[in-house]
Amino acid sequence: MFTPLPAYPCTSSSTPYKGEWYLHTLPKDDAYHSLLTLGFGVPVDLTSTVVGLTLQTDDFPRD
After folding, report:
1. What is the pLDDT of residues 25-39, one digit of tens each?
2. Domain hosting residue 14, numbered range
């Protein structure tokens, strides 16, 4: 069963070199319906979600 998070951050094999990562949001019907590309270092406020934190992205690995 699909239990979506309010947001799902991820990187791909090419994005660390570009300093970018993806935030998938708007979960519905077993899929995420929004994709946002952000740069490393941009904090994501998830305090109003079940996660209840701010995701710091400045330490995401670049290699």
Report:
1. 888 888 888 888 888
2. 7-55
